[in-house]
Each structure stands twice: as C-alpha cells, then as structure tokens.
Amino acid sequence: NFGVAITGSGSAVPTNFLSNEVLTQLVETSDEWIATRTGIRSRRLATANDSLQAIATQASLQAIAMAGIAPTDIDLIILATSTPDDLFGSACQIQAALGATQAVAFDMTAACSGFVFGLVTAAQYIRTGVYQNILLIGADILSRWVDWEDRRTCVLFGDGAGAVVMQASKRDRLLGFELKSDGTQNRCLNLAYQPQVQALVNDIDVAKGNYQPITMNGKEVYRFAVQRVPEVIDKALFRANLKVDQIDWLLLHQANQRILDAVADRLHIPHHKVISNLAHYGNTSAASIPLALDEAVRADKIKDGDIIAASGFGAGLTWGAAIFSW
Ligand code: ACO
C-alpha cells in the first residue's frame, strides 16, 4: 500500500483589485453591508488579458518548486474548475504551459467542493500505485459569469488559483475523508446553460445558447453549509480516528466569514484555529482552499505535522471534508 503526502503548494491571483467601495458605484450596497454580512473587503478580478491557464500555471510552478520536482516528473494533472478557458478543458493547456510532457491531464468540476473532491480523487491514484506525482489545481474565474447588476451575488466572488503537489509517501498523510452530493438541491446555486432554439432545416432545430449568470439562493446555501459541513468533518474525523481537539487548523472553503465562524462554533473549534483570507479575495470557488492553504504555509502558520481539517461546499450541491497532516 502506498501513502499520500502533500509536498508543495502555490497560489496566484490576478493583479486587479476590486474593493467594496468601487462596487458601490455598480450596485446599491455599502462596504459596511458587505463586510458585516460576509467579511469580504476586496477581491481580485481577472481582466480580458488574464486567463485561467496563466494563473493556474503560476500557482503550479510554485507548488512544483516547493515539492522539489521537475514538471516532467508529474504523472497526472487534475484541474478542479467550473470556469475553464475552454469548455473542452483547460488542464491540457496548463500541461503544455508547464512542459509536463509525461502527465495525463483532465478537468474536474465540483464547484466550490472541487479542490477537496480532487484531493480525494488524486489520492486514489497514488494509493493504488498507479501514479507517484500528481499536480492538483483549484482555479476559478467566476467574475466571467457574475451578473454585475445583481447585488446579492456580485459582491461575493473573486478570481484566483491554488495548487498542490501530491506524492507517494511511506507515511499516509491523508487521514480520513467524506464526500457528499445532493442533486435535489441543485436549484440553490446555478451557472446554467440557457438554450436558444435555432431552426436548421425543415423541422430540425438545434439549441444554441450561452450560460446564464450565477444565480443563488443565499439563505438556503448558508443554511446548507452551516448544517452539512460540521457533519462531514465529524465523519472524516471518525474515519481518521481523531477527536476534534486534535485539529490544528480548520481550513474551510472561503465563502463567508459568518459560515466559517458558525461551523467552528458548532464543532467547538476556537476561532484562532480557523484559517481565513476571504477579506482580501472573496469567494474564489475551487481556488479558495489551496489559496488559503498556501498563504498559511508560506506565512509559517502551518507547520510540519499539523493536522488540517479541510472542507469544501457549494453548487451541485456538493460538500466534503478531508483530514490530512502537513
Ligand atoms: N448590499 C446591500 N444590501 C443587500 C445586498 C448587498 N450586496 N445583497 C442583498 N441585500 C439586501 C437584500 O436585498 C435584502 O433586502 P430586503 O430585506 O429589502 O429584501 C437584505 O439585504 C437581506 O438580504 P438577505 O439575502 O436576507 O441577506 P443575508 O443576511 O442572507 O446575507 C448572503 C446574504 C451574504 C448572500 C448570505 O445569505 C450568505 O452568505 N449566504 C451564503 C452564500 C454563499 O456562501 N454562497 C457561496 C457558497 S457556494 C460557492 O462558493 C459557489
């Protein structure tokens, strides 16, 4: 049996800032409303010159350097994203940019749970001995799909990318996990295809179309997260044979500070163990966990051997937790 370890991390965001103040010029809102309801003060915004591939590649290069491997050592690249540059997938574009010539590469979509789902997926390839070196990326440019006239959603999201290198290791550092989906709640959060019927010939129609901007029932998503996230963390802890007070860091999808606080309170985890960077980045979807992880690692907050409880939650609906040691 082969164990799994995360041996490198990296992150990258577009250079453009969008502050709450500037948002007040777009929609009827205020810095005070956004900050007290969400904890968000600013977010990064991709321009037409930015691409998902570029920020994901930048984050990946940092993770690869920290792991001390070469791009050609990578066996598999998994890109967790809902916003690829190309609907056919962006993982291969990143593979080319990295020169990771030996890697097979594919995209994976599980919205804001994408990084945790990807972590567990990647671990299976390592545990079965199929691959030794995997690059897992969580990256999203949700600003492409935001309705900038909808104040209920446009204040929440930001753009970014995070990456980790996962390697085969004698000691298995993925201690437990639990993943869940509930498609009956799909309508809570969507970025849905909107068909527009176009007559081809005679009585043959095709559905050409585009994607609708993000729609969300904020209250439902809030309730879902606060209830379901503690449940999956409990289950993953049980699988890891650990108790909640053994967690050093609670690393949740950075959606909303009130969700972070409420989940910590439900689990009786003190707030100083909660990693939070959403004031600066907003909700960056699949990027939020690896982005926050990388910042905490580089700030020397997370130390060798620390136990991290990570949980992603979002559209699908999907949610999941992974307990791992650094
Ligand atoms: N500025 C000012 N007022 C606003 C804004 C805004 N940006 N947005 C909504 N309001 C108004 C509403 O119109 C409403 O006014 P009304 O009472 O006159 O109708 C009032 O503020 C209260 O609105 P609520 O929706 O009840 O506000 P709530 O306290 O629920 O906060 C929020 C909204 C922040 C979206 C909250 O529901 C939330 O955080 N939900 C979770 C959302 C989330 O995390 N989604 C992402 C997770 S999944 C993923 O990452 C893809």
UniProtKB/TrEMBL annotation:
Matches recorded under Gene3D superfamilies: 3.40.47.10
What SUPFAM superfamilies does the database record attribute to this sequence? Thiolase-like
Q: Where in or outside the cell? A: Cytoplasm
- Give the E.C. number(s): 2.3.1.180
* Domain Beta-ketoacyl-[acyl-carrier-protein] synthase III C-terminal intervals: 238-326
Q: Which residues form the Beta-ketoacyl-[acyl-carrier-protein] synthase III N-terminal domain?
A: 106-183
State a single Pfam family of this protein.
ACP_syn_III_C
Q: Which domain of life is it from?
A: Bacteria
Record InterPro entries: ACP_syn_III_C (IPR013747), ACP_syn_III_N (IPR013751), FabH (IPR004655), Thiolase-like (IPR016039)
State what this protein does: Catalyzes the condensation reaction of fatty acid synthesis by the addition to an acyl acceptor of two carbons from malonyl-ACP. Catalyzes the first condensation reaction which initiates fatty acid synthesis and may therefore play a role in governing the total rate of fatty acid production. Possesses both acetoacetyl-ACP synthase and acetyl transacylase activities. Its substrate specificity determines the biosynthesis of branched-chain and/or straight-chain of fatty acids.
Family that this chain belongs to: Belongs to the thiolase-like superfamily. FabH family.
What protein is this chain from? Beta-ketoacyl-[acyl-carrier-protein] synthase III
Q: Which organism is it from?
A: Chroogloeocystis siderophila 5.2 s.c.1
Q: Which gene encodes it?
A: fabH
